[in-house]
User: What shape does this take?
Amino acid sequence: MSAIALRGVSKAFPGGLAVRDVSIEIADGELLVVLGPSGSGKSTLLRLIAGLDEPTAGRIHIGGRDVTSDPPQARDLAMVFQNYALYPHKTVRDNLAFGLRMRRVDAAEVAARVDNAARLLGIDALLERKPAQLSGGQRQRVALGRALVRQPRAFLLDEPLSNLDPVLRASTRAELALLHRRLGTTMVYVTHDQEEAMTLGTRIAVMRDGRLEQLDTPLEVFRRPANVFVARFVGSPAMNVWRSDGRDLGIRPHDVEVMPPGAGDVDGQVEVVERLGTATLVHVRADRPDSELVRVVVAADRAIAVQERVGLRLRPDRLHYFDERTGERISVEADL
Assistant: This one.
């Protein structure tokens, strides 16, 4: 069993609390994505699981055993970093085998594990090359392979795709999802990229200022954000949120329809038009006392111009309500 449990975990540094009373139960075989902006505590949380940092409070269990005081080598976890950390003077084969050789694993077993990992990751033709001869995506696969050959109880991945260009990042992300499906091993994946979180995670743990803001499936986090922060942070383009009738009202740009003036819920003037290829993002200055800019997604071929007057219709079954004081979600009868 490779389930991971964090129970009331906190971590204090001289500058303050980096992690604040976080409790998460990660199921055996789950791919949990920890999502948050810089400084949210997500990487510190991963280091606490790995044993690289010790919690100030709380307990950590792996496979049902309390490992809070155990050193990293006793936890049987493999970590993958964003900078790959490959040995530049060693071949791919030797990079993959190095950790096993240090543990004095039998030579035949080392060779079998290296060959198996290389085939699984599609790098078997690269085994005699050195890191300088590889692309960024290939180096990332080698870093994954080095973790894979260890056959750990769980994988911890800290922003592993952040150094890749957008196209390579998308393809490698798909490969990671396939790898998790094949292995069925527990993975904890840290990122600030909400698209990665939505496409990879079995569940998403959204963090801010060291606190766990929401823990749920990607679809539930998107459809029922727990508060204004999650609503604005998860989803692209970000949710529109403004004050209305003593509470905060939110609606996603895809759920606003552009109408002729006077035909919608509010009129406004088009301020910015962003052609994105697959769709167009329109920023409309609403005729409201607060002069809010409302983001609207329309079809890519929709004819719309800056300074054009339009009406905006808000889908009533797609409205989100939040407490104006706390920012927390308010359940309503029409909740999604």
Observations:
- The mean pLDDT is 92.
- The helical segments are 42-50, 92-102, 107-121, 136-148, 166-183, 194-200, 218-223, 228-233.
- The longest helix spans residues 166-183.
- Residues 256 and 314 are 5 Å apart (CA to CA).
